[in-house]
């Protein structure tokens, strides 16, 4: 089995590569070669199965070299995040749209269509969400990042229909806890909140305690990416909204207080940015029975999310958070 | 005012070019140059305002030369039709998707965004339509042609949101009456029926008399393209489903009998192709109040459709067709 990961040195990519090397198989077959493609590859372990392809996904020749000996399963993770893609349109256009289309084209194989797992995004829904949402919600991209993600979803679905690429697209929510470094993600505050609280540092949260977002740990995200690769006998349905934890900042803080003690709560201040609040604070509850039916999952609970996101060994105190975000510890 | 038409030598393109030269203005300003781009340009009149750019839309350098002196309004009509694009994927991909994206890129101008009128298609809705439809129907492309049209709509909407291209996309129904020549269109029978009936020739219709499709004459289509260019102060809404005439083959035949006499009815036979019937015979009634509000229109009636499509001078007899397709002449 030959497996490829684009964006292999990224936050989710590293974790996925490590997991693939650990389990050593995908779709019930042993991984002989793991092709890793990224602009840097310094975060990846030494392993004889790794084939390092160092460079940009926008380099079609690099892609051709990487795929020269064939590939069975591809995890296409690389992307320029929403904030950066909005500011640098041309970069987002080349990486998020054109490189993805080129990859799809190079993967076309009607005789033995390779499995492609594509990391799409909940950004495709756009700004105006209904009070309650389910998997049938139409896409309505409001950012170039989201427009390009949606366009690639459509291309993927078309090539799956043609039987040329066995594509599967997952719409990912905000994934935590990303490393504390500039990453161009507007949702970076979700990870920063977790890291600073855990470290006992002061943090000014750019959205209100009532702001509700969709959360998923990188570990859970990797579970879902692998699950997507395992699925068989798919019909025309090729795009799934992953189950998510719908949590307010107050609920996440309660979970953090539970894990790291309530003292750090005093170090958290709030200075809501109306634009961020509008983009990331108004996510409604989301039902995703179809995705759950297929074995996709979220982290189960705030405690599960924090355990998975921050690699916590076990739980300490419990805390209770009311719907209104009032904290109380039993 | 500098105006460009891609696919200028096509069925709708020729009519649009002729109309632009006749009226001599767009958006209230005189047309100084009309840039026409196509692989052949033999169907266009002699006119000092024409700037002929002979070649393929997939030639980015040709496009750059054509746009070198700037452009105010672009009508982007060229496309590889659905049947041909499905059979020759790479051709459809390059013309319908990549050349459109390249055109959009070359038009980007935040200081003075050019108006772009894009000919999209009702094909974006896909196969399974509800019993009644309105403008809110989500797209669900089931052909590569439709997938690529939908992707370009999304790119257009994104660049309009960014204020870089003042794009407007119209979803066109089957346009009649196309010249009787191989054109790769699966809906060619709609035009063939009109031409053969008018000529008094025998014709075997590949869909049943009950098959209902959406109809529009090329003349009406040109009206709508020009209307789209005139619109001002548009918000985020950039994609419109045009009003259509929802007519069964029986209703169209009744109109033809009205215009050309009922004798020719005997020369029409039916041999429904299940695939064509499924693709083009199941179109439901369609409400499009938003588009009507903006001044978009259909041909008004079967008689209007045939008059516009076949360039008929006036009406002769009247005929009545019942809902079930039973003919009777008063």
Automatic annotation (TrEMBL), chains A, B:
Leader peptide range in chain numbering: none
InterPro entries: Epimerase_deHydtase (IPR001509), NAD(P)-bd_dom_sf (IPR036291)
SUPFAM superfamilies linked to this entry: NAD(P)-binding Rossmann-fold domains
Protein keywords: Carbohydrate metabolism, NADP
The NAD-dependent epimerase/dehydratase domain, residue ranges: 3-202
Name of protein: NAD-dependent epimerase/dehydratase family protein
Lineage per the UniProt record: Bacteria, Pseudomonadati, Pseudomonadota, Gammaproteobacteria, Pseudomonadales
